[in-house]
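Hi support team,

I'm opening this ticket because the web form for multi-chain structure prediction keeps timing out on my end. I have pasted the exact lines I submitted so you can reproduce it. The total is 500 residues across two entries, so I didn't expect it to be a heavy job. Is there a limit I'm missing, or should I split the entries? Thanks in advance, R.K.
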Amino acid sequence: MYLAAEHFVRAPGWTWYILGYFFFAGLTGGSYALATLLRLVGDARDEAAARIGFYVSFLTLLVCPVLLTADLGVWTKFWHMLVNVTPGAQGLNFTYSSPMSVGVWTLFIFGLFATVSLIEVFVLDRRARSSAGHEPVRPVGGAAGLAFNIVGAVFALLVVSYTGVLLSVSNQPIWSDTWMLGGLFLASGLSGSAALMALLTRYRPDAAFSLSRLSEAMAISRSWSSSCWWRSS
Amino acid sequence: MATTIKPGESYGFFTDTSICIGCKACEVACKEWNQLEGHDGKFLADSFDNTGQLDDQNWRHVKFIDNVPDQTVDAGNGKAWLMMSDVCKHCKHASCMDVCPTGAIIRTEFDTVFIQQDACNGCRNCIAACPYSVISINQKTGTAHKCTLCYDRLQGGLEPACSKACPTQSIQFGPLADLQKAADVRLAALHSQGVTQAELYGRDDKVYGGLNAFFLLMDKPEAYGLPNADNATLPTRNDLGGYIGAFVTAVLGVIAGIIAFRRRGAS
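Hello R.K., no limit was hit. The queue was backed up. Here is the completed structure from your submission:
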């Protein structure tokens, strides 16, 4: 393959805030998706680890908009990402061809899901502690609650991967010479989240059951992220 | 070129590099009208070009290409340097517009590409996308700046400052159709005089659907650092593939989760 040698385009100069955002976006989306999967296909004893995932997802989510806003040239105009202020074209802003526009909306919607899920697991944990019952507490809502998690997980997966697509949808050398970056970011986000959740099972004894399963998930997604890396380079 | 400027028509520049003398009057006129402070003067020790590049302060940039073959030398003449007054191309299919998330980049009533300063929030996605390195961030305002094709002057019925100031009519302004006709005539004249290397760049739709600011070049586009038709690619070419790659990985990720988290018989 030839390199598009004529494209000596200017680097956008995104700062380390964006680097940090990629990392936290991988964790927030990855842990939400894994927590949902634990509830969906896992054992009843996996519920504790799933809750770790929802806590991690919310806490790492908090950092994301802060980092994104800090990188803007005019941070007070961050809301222009969502609202078009062009005279004659005012209203909500969505440009499907711009991964940044897609990503901003995805992050916004995912934020609602992650917040609701945080409240859910927080309330469940408190209730379990006060009742001191030994039977594991099931997630609320039954099938509806699970469906809520699944829809949230779809947005979560997009939060992790759109950042890679964003880099490819440019005329920058290397970045735009491949379209595997979205997959690469997703695979590494999932494996990083599995590693973090596995680490945190140390601090929550009732989640110890899920440790080996999280390690296994980490190993599998790790190998896929390696193969994405190999295919993109 | 005295023309009445009417909204709803396509306007642009025809920059004929064969008659550019490298005086940089366009750069000066542009800075004067658009109140660009410019950078601190720098001696780049690289030909007569001390402007360096198009950016937030330089909306016109006279490129000097002095690395030309010796064949251009003949009796009484030295090497024929290539000079080209570069500018935002106001692409018909603009990469910057495709990726702008705020809607700040618009196509005006004169069919030019314009960044609304009050809407732009400085996300810099357009800089990553522009294949011509035209856009950069103004450090004072924090927003993306580039040539406006003198939007304000056009609204007032005036032609842009650079073409007005150009002493050789290397930069011509007018309705796009007229410019294209003029360019065809000029190219035919050069070819009939034996200047066979002359070619038009952006006159047809081979690069970015056609350029409203197009050029007559005296060498291949590559010699001027411009992407040729094969390399003129849009950022959005990776949109579909990128999301498909992400989707396939998402499916694999879910499979990984099912393998790792599935209920085993022994539990």
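A quick check on our side: Chain A has a mean pLDDT of 90. Let us know if the file doesn't open in your viewer.
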